[in-house]
TrEMBL record:
Keyword RNA-binding: no
Taxon lineage: Bacteria, Pseudomonadati, Pseudomonadota, Alphaproteobacteria, Rhodobacterales
Pfam family, one: Epimerase
Keywords: Carbohydrate metabolism, NADP
InterPro entries: Epimerase_deHydtase, NAD(P)-bd_dom_sf
Limits of the NAD-dependent epimerase/dehydratase domain: 7-168
Protein's UniProt keywords contain Lyase: no
Name of the protein in question: NAD(P)-dependent oxidoreductase
């Protein structure tokens, strides 16, 4: 099953990065894992590197001698703009420059529902629908999606931008009955992105099986991802909860959920 000599995973200490370390291990002889903090339990086939994505020289070294990049690093939530600028925007630019200068031809990028969070749930959008970020965090995801488009058109670096909705061990609320992406399906989508014969520049929607189908992922069909997990066996427990949400609340109306109810991060605590 080994298809690569070395894969780089950024954000490898995070919730999804930890799952990807395990799930992608059979694909490569070596997995280079990186985060801004020390990573524990390093496996024999892993190379651990502490790296700040905002450090240009460090990222150039990090991306050297790798065959593909799984870029899940960066600030994971709405925070102050300076953090988003350095970790998500500048850091992702460094990743793509590292790919260009070091000859890496494929990147799997952890984009987010928050890139399109202000679309209403009933809009049933697809990959060609306009971006509608719900936060500065979402804006950073829009930036990297556009950056990756440029690097495909101009430099031939393929990207799968995977708009992850809600990836947790299991659904935690009613919204996740349609937004949940199981850990196994997340790994499965990334694996398909790494091994598909051709990716080009693709926007994918990271959701497991559910009966509501709020987005159309057919324009990523050439990736070959087929979810195996399903939210239906969680439905009774979620619907039995007494907290019936207001259907007109922004967190219910829009794809981005509670992010649509946040103010500007600079105003928090004032």
């Amino acid at each position: 099953m080994t298809q690569f000599n070395r894969i780089l995973i950024t954000g490898a200490a995070g919730r999804l990065g930890s799952e990807l370390r395990k799930g992608l291990a059979p694909l490569a002889k070596h997995i280079r894992i990186s985060d801004r903090v020390e990573i524990g339990d390093v496996q024999p086939n892993e190379e651990a590197v502490v790296c700040e994505l905002g450090d240009y020289d460090a990222v150039m070294a990090l991306t050297k001698d790798v065959d593909a990049i799984v870029h899940f690093g960066g600030a994971p939530l709405e925070v102050d703009f300076e953090t988003i600028l350095d970790s998500n925007i500048r850091g992702s630019y460094h990743i793509y420059e590292g790919a260009r200068k070091n000859g890496v031809k494929r990147v799997i990028y952890a984009s987010s529902v928050h890139a399109i969070g202000y679309h209403e749930v009933e809009a049933h959008i697809d990959a060609d629908s306009p971006v509608r970020p719900d936060s500065l965090y979402g804006v950073s995801k829009n930036f990297v999606e556009s950056l990756s488009r440029l690097y495909w058109d101009k430099f031939g670096i393929e990207s799968l931008c995977l708009r992850i909705f809600s990836s947790f061990p299991e659904p935690a609320d009613r919204r996740m009955l349609w937004s949940w992406l199981s850990f196994s399906d997340c790994v499965r989508y990334v694996e398909q992105g790494l091994t598909a014969p051709r990716v080009g520049h693709t926007i994918g929607f990271g959701i497991s099986n559910n009966r509501l189908k709020v987005v159309d992922d057919s324009k990523a069909g050439h990736i070959g991802y087929r979810p195996k997990d399903n939210t239906e066996h969680f439905r009774d427990a979620m619907e039995a909860k007494t907290d019936i949400p207001d259907p007109n609340a922004p967190g219910v109306r829009f794809l981005g959920g509670w992010f649509c109810e946040l103010g500007h991060p600079d105003d928090e605590g004032k």
